[in-house]
Amino acid sequence: MSKALVVLDLQKGFVEQGDFQERIDRVEKMISHFKESKNEVIFIKHIDYDIEKSPLFFKKKDNIEIIVDTNNSKVFEKSEPSAFTSKNFKEYVKEKNIDHIFITGFNTEYCCLFTAINAYHEDIKVTFIEDATATVNDEETYEMKGLDIYDFIGTVLDWSNSIEVLYYDEYKELYTS
Fold it and tell me: Edge-to-edge, what's the strand order for the sheet holding 125-134?
């Protein structure tokens, strides 16, 4: 059995909406660690096929491009929040006997959350790296004053006792020694 880092939607269209450099740096460090350890790194790219549904990620725009070098890693496309809606992704995970995935990328409360939950339901161990996910949304988006999306999602997943939630430093301590 094996581990895989899943990097969700680390795309120009998201990254250009805020200052996410610290979170991106953590993802890049994790990519390096997984590559050095000969573990899988899988990139997921969000693409919408209906320009009216989502002009930001319409398939012919340059803002759908992944902002880091994928280094010949597998790249799967999806148009729904969970990576598991990509049949090819799901088949690849099974084919490679991946039994533990680490979640990073965008948006914390959508694609990262949905992928984590779906992985759990596929009997895959999930580690959600809270500070290596990012979101373009905030308390105003949800009209919930004081909402810390990262903390809220991390807490909900952690309390589920189904998904391991770690900060990057905890990940390093547990998985890179």
Answer: 74-78, 40-46, 2-8, 98-106, 125-134, 164-166
Buried b (16+ CB within 10 A) or exposed e, 59-83: eeeebbebbeeeeebbebbbeebbb
> Phi and psi of 92, rounded to 5°?
-65, -45
Q: Which helix (H) or strand (E) holds 168?
A: helix 168-175
CATH number at residue 104: 3.40.50.850
Is residue 11 within 8 A of residue 153, CB to CB? The reply is: no
Interval 19-37: pLDDT, tens:
999 999 999 999 999 999 9
Looking at the structure of the chain, the number of domains it has is: 1
Range of the domain at 55: 2-175
d(CA 165, CA 156): 10
Question: How do residues 64-73 score in pLDDT, each as one tens digit?
Answer: 889 899 988 9
Dist CA 76 CA 99 (whole Å): 18
Residue labelled with tokens 């984590």? 116
Q: How many CB atoms lie within 10 A of CB 134?
A: 29
The tokens for 3 are 């581990």
Q: Of 174, 101, 166, which Cα lies nearest the Cα of 129?
A: 166
pTM of the model: 0.93
